[in-house]
Amino acid sequence: MNNIEDSSTLIYKVNTEESGMTLRDILYKKMKLSGRLTRKAKRNKKIFVNDNNISLDSRLREGDVVKVIMEDEKNKFEPQNIPIDVVYEDVDLLIINKQPYIVVHPTKSHPDNTIANGIANLLLNRKETFKIRFINRLDRDTSGLLMIAKNPFAQQILSKQMQNNIVEKSYIAVVRGVIEKDFGTIDEKIGLSGDEPMIRKVIESGQRSITHYEVIERFKNATLVRLKLETGRTHQIRVHMKHIGHPLVGDKLYGDTDSNNLISRQALHAESLKFLQPRTQKEIFVRAEIPVDIKQLLQKLRGE
C-alpha cells in the first residue's frame, strides 16, 4: 500500500510486474481487502482506477492508481470526560495505555463511564469521526495496551494477525509464591467452570490455551513474571497461573483473598505489543509503562 492520504482512503499504484492483473486480484491479493469490504465498496461505487469506476474484471496496466474509499461509520458511544493515555497512533490505529478499574466498552452492568466513552470524547475534541473498533480486550482491573482500529481495513488486517498469532502480546504480573524455574510454558485447555458464568478453569473440554512465562524477579513470597500468550482466552493468564499454584496477587476471583494491604486489583499489566502496520507491513513495537500501583507493590515486596 502506498500514497497514504487519510484513514478512510486506500491507494495502490500498479507496478510493472502486476501489469495485466485484474482489478479484483489487485484488491484481494495486493491490497489485502476482504471480500466483505470489497463488495461493500463496489456496491457504494467507492472503488476507482485513475478516478474512474470500472469492472472488477478489468485488467490494469503499470502506473494505474487504484483508490478505495471506506465510508465513515458513525460512532455509537456517548462521549464522556474520561482520561485517555495515547501511546501510539498512525493513520490506521490508535493504541492507548488503559488505566485499571474501568471497563473497555459498555455492557448491561456498565452502560457508561467506559474506555469507549472516553475515546468518543477524545475524538469529539479532535473533531474526528471514525468508528471505534477494539482489536483486543482487557479485563476491568487489568491495565495496559489496547488497540483500536480507525477503519474496517485496519480492523480486518489486525484481527487476522491476532488470529494467526502474528501479534506478540507481552504482560507483566506479580504472582503468589516463588516460581523456581526461570522459564516455563503452560499448555492447558481453558473453559467455563459450569458453576459461575464469570469463572474459567482448566478443563479437558475447554479450548487449547498456551502461556509462556519468564521470571524477572523473585521475592520472599512472590514472583514478578513476564508472560507471552499464544492464544487469547478469557482470563487466560489468571487461570493458568492459578492452575500451577501461583495466582496473581490481588486476584480475588481466582483465589488470592488476602492482599488488600498490597494492591486492590489483580497485579496484571499488558506491557507491550509487536505487530505489522496494516498498510506498510512495517514492524511496530509499543510499550506501556508499569502503572503506579504495581510499582508500589514491588517496592513493598522488596522491603519484606
Explain the layout of strands and helices.
Layout: E1 9-13, H1 23-30, H2 35-43, E2 47-49, E3 65-69, E4 86-89, E5 93-98, H3 115-126, E6 133-134, E7 143-149, H4 152-163, E8 168-176, E9 183-187, E10 190-192, E11 200-202, E12 210-218, E13 222-229, H5 236-243, E14 268-276, E15 283-287, H6 292-302
Parallel strand pairs: 7-14
Antiparallel strand pairs: 1-3, 2-3, 4-5, 5-7, 6-7, 8-13, 8-14, 9-12, 10-11, 12-13, 14-15
Organism: Caminicella sporogenes DSM 14501
GO molecular function, one term: RNA binding
Family: Belongs to the pseudouridine synthase RluA family.
Describe the structure.
- GO terms for molecular function: catalytic activity, acting on RNA; pseudouridine synthase activity; RNA binding.
- The chain has helices at residues 23-30, 35-43, 115-126, 152-163, 236-243, 292-302; strands spanning 9-13, 47-49, 65-69, 86-89, 93-98, 133-134, 143-149, 168-176, 183-187, 190-192, 200-202, 210-218, 222-229, 268-276, 283-287.
- The chain is α+β, with helices and mostly antiparallel strands.
- The chain has 2 domains: 9-69, Structural Genomics Hypothetical 15.5 Kd Protein In mrcA-pckA Intergenic Region, Chain A; 86-302, Pseudouridine synthase.
- The strands form 3 sheets. Strands 4, 5, 6, 7, 8, 9, 12, 13, 14 and 15 form a 10-stranded mixed beta sheet that branches. The protein has a 3-stranded antiparallel beta sheet with strand order 1-3-2.
